């Protein structure tokens, strides 16, 4: 029986009105079943909730928007931070302080009014903090680096219930670990991040017919390697359902989607896009000059909860043979039920050593490969196998690692460990043992305390 010690105005147990809505994640394939849910309104609420959990040996799960949910929280205490929505912007210093419940769309809307941009993700509805603690790969990353490279500080409630300011000076080891270590070291209640003078871009999407996908992938693997760092161009194979919010030219069919964000002039961007436009005539062309507040239209990702399965991997190089293998596994001649099979380019500033090193150490890959499929009743038994077949087809060109934000359903200990180099994982697991000796934070992509400790690891 969980104690009913009051730690916030919103404290719910199963059967209480509002409990199901409080704990529901964005991915409806995940069904949380905590013993207690706390709707935190401030950092003090979070600290009180973690203190309560520690006193009763309850595992802790933290959730803002729920996009990062990858396993069910059974029993224990779930902290919802979605009410923590404070945002302050220092335009002169080009910095912002964002609380844990904010979504990127909300932050971008306010910074864009000042001609500034954060290093946000592709979706407007993803929570900022979860994205930051997983590294943060977005449309500006090739030009400016991963979002985690431009975090100045975190406010963090550690498993002992203490609220700490974590930065390079005050808590250097925790600062290193939380930037890339996800929710293994406590609950981030706020982050201080850099902003960049980006007010506009030339971007959008080119949607091509399925028959053109093999030729598009063949051209893409050569073309994207020559793009300047100011240009971002992901390529996705999309199978979108026929729904009212899906464009009539896209629903119910396979299409190739070139996702473009170019910081140069419209003229330069069109010159750079010309080789891909020459491959085939698009079904739909949304590429145009736009304000940065429209950045989410580049990927045009869904903003409503759905049940889904996903996995990610890092691609060492995209050769002609790799492009052909991907087309065969998920293209027009396959029967793939996957909604998205996507390549996102890395390189540029992502590959360079950041000023403030972090636990994100898989920086030498050329792309992320992300596979996502629906878990509707008619396909839920075949989607995971279809995704694994795509990854198996691409295995000769994969690094064996991943970015933790794209790890998806790969939650087994050895799979989680592979998101980092052995040296980095050993350092993370040793720190996990020190900071969370009772392993309160053990939902999601879990680092096991003390796993893989070695005498040679960095201290």
Would you give an account of this structure?
The protein is α+β, with helices and mostly antiparallel strands. It has 3 domains: 10-80, Uridine Diphospho-n-acetylenolpyruvylglucosamine Reductase, domain 2 (2-Layer Sandwich); 87-194, Uridine Diphospho-n-acetylenolpyruvylglucosamine Reductase, domain 3, CATH 3.30.465; 200-406, Vanillyl-alcohol Oxidase, Chain A, domain 3 (3-Layer(aba) Sandwich), CATH 3.40.462.20. The chain is built from 12 helices and 17 strands. The strands form 3 sheets. Strands 10, 11, 12, 13, 14, 15, 16 and 17 form an 8-stranded antiparallel sheet that branches. Strand 5 (87-90) and strand 6 form a beta hairpin. Helix 7 runs antiparallel to helix 9 (320-330). 54% of the residues are buried.
**Which structural class is indicated by helix and strand composition?**
alpha+beta
CATH architectural name of the largest domain: 3-Layer(aba) Sandwich
Number of domains: 3
| Poorly predicted spans | 454-459
Gap from first CA to last CA = 40 Å
Please describe the biggest sheet, giving its number of strands, its sense, and whether it closes into a barrel: 8 strands, antiparallel
Compute the average pLDDT: 94
Keywords: FAD, Flavoprotein, Oxidoreductase
Domain FAD-binding PCMH-type: 30-198
InterPro entries: FAD-bd_PCMH (IPR016166), FAD-bd_PCMH-like_sf (IPR036318), FAD-bd_PCMH_sub1 (IPR016167), FAD-bd_PCMH_sub2 (IPR016169), FAD-linked_Oxidoreductase (IPR050416), Oxid_FAD_bind_N (IPR006094), Oxy_OxRdtase_FAD_BS (IPR006093)
Cofactor: FAD
């Amino acid at each position: 029986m969980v104690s009913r010690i009051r730690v916030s105005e919103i404290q719910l147990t199963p059967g209480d009105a509002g409990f199901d809505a409080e704990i529901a994640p964005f991915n409806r394939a995940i069904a949380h079943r905590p013993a207690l849910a706390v709707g935190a309104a401030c950092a003090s609420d979070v600290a009180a909730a973690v203190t309560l959990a520690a006193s009763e040996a309850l595992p802790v799960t933290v959730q803002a928007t729920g996009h990062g949910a990858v396993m069910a929280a059974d029993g224990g205490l779930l902290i919802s931070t979605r009410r923590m929505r404070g945002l302050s912007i220092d335009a002169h210093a080009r910095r912002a302080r964002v609380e844990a419940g904010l979504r990127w769309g909300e932050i971008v809307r306010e910074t864009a009014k000042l001609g500034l941009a954060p290093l946000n993700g592709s979706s407007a509805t993803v929570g900022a903090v979860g994205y930051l603690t997983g590294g943060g790969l977005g449309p500006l990353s090739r030009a400016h680096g991963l979002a985690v490279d431009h975090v100045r500080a975190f406010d963090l409630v550690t498993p002992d219930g203490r609220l700490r300011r974590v930065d390079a000076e005050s808590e250097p080891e925790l600062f290193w670990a939380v930037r890339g270590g996800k929710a293994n070291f406590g609950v981030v209640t706020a982050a201080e991040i850099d902003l960049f003078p980006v007010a506009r871009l030339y971007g959008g999407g080119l949607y091509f017919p399925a028959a053109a996908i093999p030729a598009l992938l063949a051209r893409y693997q050569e073309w994207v390697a020559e793009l300047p760092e100011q240009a971002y161009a992901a390529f996705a194979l999309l199978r979108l359902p026929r729904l009212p919010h899906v464009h009539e030219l896209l629903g119910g069919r396979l299409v190739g989607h070139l996702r473009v964000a170019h910081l140069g002039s419209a003229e330069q961007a069109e010159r750079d896009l010309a080789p891909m436009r020459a491959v085939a005539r698009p079904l739909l062309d949304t590429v145009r000059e736009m304000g940065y507040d429209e950045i989410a239209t580049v990927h045009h990702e869904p903003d409503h909860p759905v049940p889904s399965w996903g996995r990610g991997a890092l691609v060492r190089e995209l050769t002609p043979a790799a492009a052909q293998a991907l087309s065969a596994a998920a293209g027009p001649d396959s029967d793939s039920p996957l909604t998205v099979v996507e390549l996102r380019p890395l390189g540029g500033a992502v590959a360079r050593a950041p000023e403030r090193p972090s636990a994100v150490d898989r920086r030498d890959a050329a792309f992320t490969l992300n596979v996502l499929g629906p878990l509707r009743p008619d396909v839920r038994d075949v989607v995971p196998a279809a995704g694994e077949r795509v990854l198996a087809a691409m295995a000769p060109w994969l690094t064996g690692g991943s970015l933790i934000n794209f790890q998806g359903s790969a939650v087994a200990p050895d799979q989680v460990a592979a998101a980092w180099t052995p040296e980095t994982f050993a350092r993370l697991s040793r720190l996990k043992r020190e900071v969370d000796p009772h392993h309160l934070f053990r939902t999601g992509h879990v680092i096991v305390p003390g796993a893989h400790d070695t005498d040679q690891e960095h201290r």
